[in-house]
Every structure is written in structure tokens, then in C-alpha cells.
Amino acid sequence: MMKTISRLRYKYWPDQIFGEILQKSWMETAVPLAVLIFTIVFFSTQIENFISPANLSDNFRQASELGFVVLGISLVLIVGGIDLSVASIFALCNLLVLYCMHVWQLPLPASIAITLVFGGLLGAVNGILIGYFRMRAFLTTMVTLIVFKSIHDLINVKVAVPISSNFPDSPMWDTMGYGSILSVPTAVWAFGIVALFCHILLTRLRPGWWLLAVGGNRRSAYNIGLPVNRIVALSYVASGALTSASAIFYAARLASPGADTGVGLEITVLTAAILGGIRLGGGKGSVMKAILGTLIILLLTNGLLRMATSAGTARIILATILLLAAALDIRWFKNRHKAVQEMYVSPAYLKLPEMPDDVAAPNAAFAPNDRLKNVETIGLGMIEAPEDVILDADDNLYSGNRHGEIIRFFAPDYKRHEVYARIGGQPLGMAFDAGYNLYVCVGGMGLYRVTADREVELITDETNRSLLSVIDDSRLKLADDLDILPDGRILFSEATVRYEMHEWQTDALEGRGNGRIILYDPKHKKTTTVLRHLTFPNGIVLGSDGQSILFAESWKCSIKRYWFDGPKKGDVEMVIDNLLGYPDNINVASDGNFWLAIMGMRSQVFDLAMRKPGFRRRMAKQLPGDEWLAPNINTGCIVKFNEAGEILDVLWDMHGENHPMITSMREHKGYLYIGGIYNNRIGRIKLDGADETFVSSGKYHVG
Amino acid sequence: MKKSVNSLKLDQQTIVTGLFLVIFLMFAIFLPGFFTAGNLLVLIRSVSVLGILGLGMAIVVIGRGIDLSMIATLSVPAALVMTLAAAGYHPVVAILAGLAFSIATGIVNGVLVAYAEIPALFTTLAVGIGIAGIGQSGMFEYDIIAWPVELDSIAWIGRGKIFGLPYSILAFAAAALIVHVFLKKTRLGFFIYAIGDNLSAARITGVRARPIIILQYVMSAGIALFAGLVLSASSNSMDTRIFNLTWIYDVILVVVLGGIGLSGGRGGVMNVIIGTILIGTIVNGMTILNVSFQGQNLVRGLILLSALLLDSIVNPRNEETAKQGDI
């Protein structure tokens, strides 16, 4: 009974989703968002009409004005600086735009342009001092704050009266100040557009990435050749220009050349940015955070003001909330990845059939033997991690290695070798088309092609995103093996969408259907997922009917058949459901049957653990990763089977000396070539009575 | 011999000292009435409160923090002392109450910085706002508290003179001496340098960094209270609304201008004194020149800017030596 409940719970309760949601980068913004929601709820219960249209529009107008400055300071913070001088830049720009409009009576666009340029220039003063002269941002902008402020005070005395005694005749100017477009205040429109642009800049455009790179690690940014000085300087220019934009709207609304304009603004915007979760020290921040911080600080101050609290009480409350929010956000920022680590691994219930118990019997299907004892070794010590091996028409031998290259060993003796192509990621399954272009699944990168001229080309590294998947499964994380179909399409497996290649053991521990089979159509250059929720789909081979493939599901210890064409199109059938170990690559044999590599052997303990998801879950939470239970991948064997699922032959290396670890094999002209991902060699063994003209690959053209 | 060459290196302290000497000489030569004993005393006296605050700030900055709440902790606890004394409490009780208040403030700052790991800039800013708020929410009857006669027994710290030297200068000197001994001669002072230089290395070597960080803020709050008492004794009142940020900027400038780097672990009391006197000289000279307040700010700002600029040209920071996260 309990077992059933447990099974159902692990089968249907979407455990993995919590970890996946927590892992999303937008979860970083959870605390500011919660604070904002709390603020709104609190004030709307305390104050009548707090969320009335009039009040909202008023709040949003002010928030937009403030938001410009917060955006500016956020850009500077992201680069790793700070800009205290915004308060004085704001005051000076306010004076300038008022003087342009009121006294000089310039047209509106000219006034705006002049003010924006002026703000940018003031920012450039900071930028040049900090970016090019490497002065300390905090001190420099503090001093420029004082300098700009005193300039403002000196000028203000002279221009205040002329500004107040003239009025511009510009309806546009009034619209900017207190008008609305489609009942949304003008300032909100302007801010929305600018914020959207900044968001795109930071998340999608190269200059934005440069900002983040410089803030994240100045030294590395410098070392990879980014113009660090210029990027830093430009961030201050942007801050100055955005501040002047804010001042323009402020001036349009209030038309006040007050002596106290902008005093303390630097504190308000800094507070907003930090409350939003933008970190001092650089490298972290987003437009969303800036906006959230702005809204929080504005709603808080306005709300407290409207609750008619005394200035003193308001300050105490404000300070307390600021500190609480910051403390919470910092805890969250610091510990989120730990929570993700604990939550992300979510084992599923996986019941394997009882292991065949008569392994040792002389006539048992998997009875051990020592036929791999006499394997010849190729490239001993010269190759690392040959997951798959393949041969071309001239009998040259190809294999990937751990360093992200494809190595070619030359026929006939395979003593000489060269780097055939550099890929950059670990090459896994390989296939030749009829033109001897080599198609390779590359872990972490996708499906690649090395043409006969040795050009490396990307075929596909993304597929359609599943509608309901929380993690972004459009990128290929672990493309594993492929085969080319008669019409030139390519079917390949992706072992897991939840883990990177080096984390395959964790996927084994989960035993969940995280993998899929993907179809690439070269005619339309389209990639689509055709089968989902497979448990570590691995080897793929075209069936004898040319309408189906056989594929291995490693952690399920089974081989299945999938029809991609013909009358049974879309069907999946079990071929072998109870292998002795974890199946890896499958390839054709010269007699029409199939070779299957078993990369590791099942054990009773691991099988039992797979039926105890709660146990594995506790293990993943409480133990460090290197103490987790892992499937045995030390010893394997090669199996020959037919499409009916009968085991025809088994090849073992009983003493584990020559070739115990096997992930792939390929029959070629009477020999079987053997690869293993943990090996430093490729194996070769003569097959008795095999067709000596048989070549396994290069049958079909792609496209 | 080599050592003397090294010691002539143009670091910021040397630059600022040189700048100070140049300005001082210029004023002394060209400005009648500047180089007189009376004026020089006025000069130092006018900046002694700033200097005392600078000493407190120096402790925190050497420990790689910053304390923006100092102006609030200068005014509110001092006003508390005066209010309690005026209400009839014994001066000792009043002072102890003020001290307890400022120590509590320092502990709040320190705990939030050391344990909650909120950046010091933000913590002390918010705490400053909060303390100012406490001062404004019915704790005092008026915004400006007059110096009560009950405290006249200690009024000399801001008013009196001994051998022609105002006590406020002596207060600065005494505070400087105490802070100097603390920083250079005690183990805790040494730990503060270690923490400021490299927090994680200090912790690995076994320094209990967090309590010491709290101690920094407690000390700066205590020093701020002392400065507050000196200030209110000399001006005969305390304005609890001086939650005014330009003043805290002056304090930071005094500290940093003298050569105490904001990245921590460098400098000492001498740097604060040089910075303080430089500011005092500039302000004093310009006051004699009858430059307006805004004009003074401008000139002072430009001089500071050129000092910082000169330093960064002479001692350039580069990508290899800059610490990540410095602002």
C-alpha cells in the first residue's frame, strides 16, 4: 500500500519543477517583488483610494521620473562603480531646461536635446575621471556632487528670477509635464520606452554584455580585450543623460528653479537600486530590478506620507524596511544556489525487471567469457575518451577525444594519427553520410558536421521548446548518438535536458525520463523533438525496414524501436526489456543483426535504490556529490541481438585487462573496433566468419 | 640608502601634504592676516569637530567599511544627553544614557554589516535615517536643543582655553592620540588593519572578524557622540535636524584626502590630521578672501578633485592590482 502511494507520488507529483523554478535567473528578483507586493497590499488596506487611477497615475508619473535616474545609477552599479553626482546633475539640468524653455524660449526639441547633451557631458566628466584616469568612483562622484552643486547654487541665484517671470508657450511642454497619452502619463511612456531599450541592451546586445562583463570581472574583461576604460566612462555618460531626462520631466511638471532641487536624490536612487537587488560592486543587475526598487521606494515614501505619520516615524519605518529588505535579499542571493542544489535533484520511481539470475550458468544468455582478451590496442596512450569509433571507405579510423577533437588513425596499421578536426566539445556518437561527411553529436554543443574537406559546421544546436517545460529545453545539452535515415534526415538522441554532460551520474540517480529523440530535417533545416520523456536515450541505429530505429534507454536497461515512417509511424515498441547492464551505442552487424555496447553492469543495490526515490532524495540532499550512489561503469560487454530481441552473442573481457570499459563498437571489414569513454585506447578484434567486405556506414546522403 | 629613495615615493599622503604646504605658503605670503597665531588657532578650531569625526570615520574606513550614520549619531545622542541633563538627571547619568544610545547604534550598524552582510554604505545610510527619525519623533521637545546650565561643569570641552589653546583643539588632539594608540599599539587595532586589508585572510588566520567589525562601528559612534558634545558646548546648542549629507561627505573627504584608502587597511591618524588641516586652511583662506559659501564649496571641490586626480596619475591603478568590488 505504502509502496503504491510512494510510487504514485513520485510518478505524478512534479518534484523536478520546484528545483527548476528556483533555478531560473528571474528568481533572483523574488525578494524585491515580494516586498513590492507586500507594500502595495499593506497600503491599499490602510489607505483609501491607494490604488485609485488618479493616485496610481500620480505615483507612476513620479516613479518614471525617479526611474530614469535609478536606471542610470543601475548601469553604473552594474559596471562596478557608483554615481553620487546624479543629484547635482539633476539640479543643473533642471535649471538648464527651464532656462532654455522659459528665458531663451527655444523650441521644445532643441531644449530637450541641449539638456540631454549637457547631462551626458556632466556624466562624461565623471566618466573621463573614473574610466580613463582610474579614479575611485565613490570619491570622485562625491566631489563632483559637491562641485556641480556649488555651480548650481552660484547660477541659481542669478537665473531663478528670470525663469520664474517668463513662461513658455508650448502645449507639448505641458503635455510632458502633466499630460497623458491614452490616459497613461507621458513620463511613463517615455520611461517605458527607455527601460525597454535598456532591458534589451543588457540582455540581448553586445554593449550590454560588455557592461556586465566589466562589472563581473574587470580583470578578465580587460584580458579578453574589452575596452574597459571606454565602457566604464560610457556608463557614467549614460547615467548623466538619463538623469537629465528625468530632470526634463521634473522641470516640465513643476517648473521650479528651487535651490534645493535634487538634494538627497543620490541617496534615494541608490536606495532604490539596492532595494531592487542591484549589487554594489558590479556584475549583477537588471532593468526589472531597477524598476522594482523604484516602485518600492516611491510607494513606501508616498504611502507613509499619506498615512500622515510624522516625519520622524516615517523615517524610522523607512529605515527598518530598507534594512530588512536588504538583509533578506542578500540572504536570498547568497543561499539560493544552495537551495537549488538541494531541490534540483529529484529522483523518480524506476522499477527494473528482476535481473536475470542465471548469469554464471554455462548456457545463460549473458554468460561471461574471455573473448575480448585478445583485443589489439590502437593508439594506446594517444587518445583519451574515445566514446564512439567509425571508419571511412579507406579504412581510416576516427574517434573523438576528451579535448574536443576528432582524431584520425591511418590505415592499415593505425600507428600514425592526426587531429582530423577541432570541435571544442567532446564528440560522442558519429555517422558518415554517403559523401563521407562526418556527422557528430557533441556533448554540450549539439549536432555538428565535419565535411570531407574537414570544415567543421554546426548543423543544429536547438530544437522546439516544449510548451510546459520550466527549464529552457530548446538548447541541446547532451546530444549523444545519431543515425542517418534513408531520405537523408537525421535522428539523434539527447540523453538528458536537465544536466550537463559531466553530470550524467546525477541523471542516473534521478532515473527520470529526461531525455528525448530529435529529428533534423536538412531540407527545411528544421529540428523537432519527436519522442520525449525517455530515460537517458543513448545509441540509435536504423532498423532493417528503413522505417524505424532501434534506440537504447540506458537507465531503463532496455532497447526500444520507434517507427518514424510507414504504417506504424509514431509507434514505440519494446525490443529488449531486461538487459544485464546499461546499454550505450548500437550499430549494425554484417549479418543483419545489431551490436550493442553495454557500458556498465546493473547491481542489486542500485536497482533497489531506483525503487526508493525517497532514499535517493535524502542522499542527494544530505551527502556531498562524490559520495552518492552511482551506476557501475567500470566493466561492460558487447552484445549481439536481433530485432526480435534475442541475445545472440556476448563478448566479455573477464579479466578486465585489455578492454573492460565499452561504450561503442563498429564492425568494419571483418573486424570489430571498440571504443570506451573512460579508455586511453581503441580496441580491435577479428570476427570469425564475418563478411570481410562489410562496411557499416556511408550508406545514405544527407539532404 | 635605498630605503630613503623609497620613502620619497609620491603617495597620496605626500601629495596632499605638498598641496597643503603650497596652499599654506601662498596664503601666508599673499594673504594678510592669515599667518597670525590668532587666525591659525581659529583655523584649527573651526575644523576640530570635523577632525574628531574624521578619526571615528578613519577607524571604520581602515576596516574597509564606511559610516554614513555619523552625523545622526553626532546629533541625536548628544541632544539626548542635554535633554536628560536639563530634565534634572545627574550629568553622569545623562552622559551614560547618551553613550548607551550611541553604542547601541554602533552595534546595530556593526551587526547588520558583519552578520547580515549588508554593504556598509547602505546599512549606515539607513541606520542614519532611522536614528534621525528617532530624534524627530517626539524624543525632544524642540528641534534645536540648547546647552543646559546643568552641564556647564563639562562645557569647557568646547569653550575653554588653557595656555591660550582652545580646549576643542585639545579635544581633537586627545582624540587623535587615543585613536593613534588604539590603532598602532593594540592588538585590536592591528586586527582592524588586517580585516581591512583582506577580510578572508584575516579570518583564516583566526581573527574573529565579525565582533571586531562591530567594535569599529561602536567606536565611530562613540567618537561621534564626543564630537557632538564638543560641538554643542562650543555652539551652545545642538540642531537635531543636521541630518545633512554634505557634512558627512566632508568627513569622508578629510579621511580619504589624507591618504586612507577606501579599500581599507591603509593609513592612520596622521592622514586624518593632514586632511583636516588642508580643508581648514582652504576654508579659512577663502573666508578671509571673502569668497561666498558656494564659491568656497566650488574651489574646495576643485582642489580636492585635483588632489585625487594627481594621486591617480602618480599612482595609477590598473586591472591587475585593482580589487574586485572596490567602488
UniProtKB/TrEMBL annotation, chain A:
Listed name of the protein: ABC transporter permease
Annotated SUPFAM superfamilies: Calcium-dependent phosphotriesterase
Alphabetically ordered keywords of this record: Cell inner membrane, Cell membrane, Membrane, Transmembrane, Transmembrane helix, Transport
GO CC annotation: plasma membrane
GO molecular function: transmembrane transporter activity
Transmembrane segments: 30-47, 67-100, 112-133, 178-202, 228-252, 258-278, 290-308, 314-333
Chief location: membrane
Presence of keyword Cytoplasm: no
Topology in membrane: Multi-pass membrane protein
Electron transport recorded as keyword: no
Organism: Antarcticimicrobium sediminis
Domain Strictosidine synthase conserved region: residue ranges: 480-566
Subcellular location per the Swiss-Prot or TrEMBL entry: Cell membrane
Automatic annotation (TrEMBL), chain B:
This protein's record includes keyword Transmembrane: yes
Pfam families attached to this UniProt entry: BPD_transp_2
Regions crossing the membrane: 12-34, 40-61, 122-142, 162-183, 212-233, 245-262, 269-291
Keywords carried by this UniProt record: Cell inner membrane, Cell membrane, Membrane, Transmembrane, Transmembrane helix, Transport
Membrane topology: Multi-pass membrane protein
Main localization, broad class: membrane
Domain of life: Bacteria
Keyword Disulfide bond tagged: no
GO cellular component: plasma membrane
CDD domains for the chain: TM_PBP1_transp_AraH_like
A GO term, aspect molecular function: transmembrane transporter activity
Subcellular location as annotated: Cell membrane
PANTHER family: ABC TRANSPORTER PERMEASE PROTEIN YPHD-RELATED, ABC TRANSPORTER PERMEASE PROTEIN YPHD-RELATED-RELATED
This protein's name: ABC transporter permease
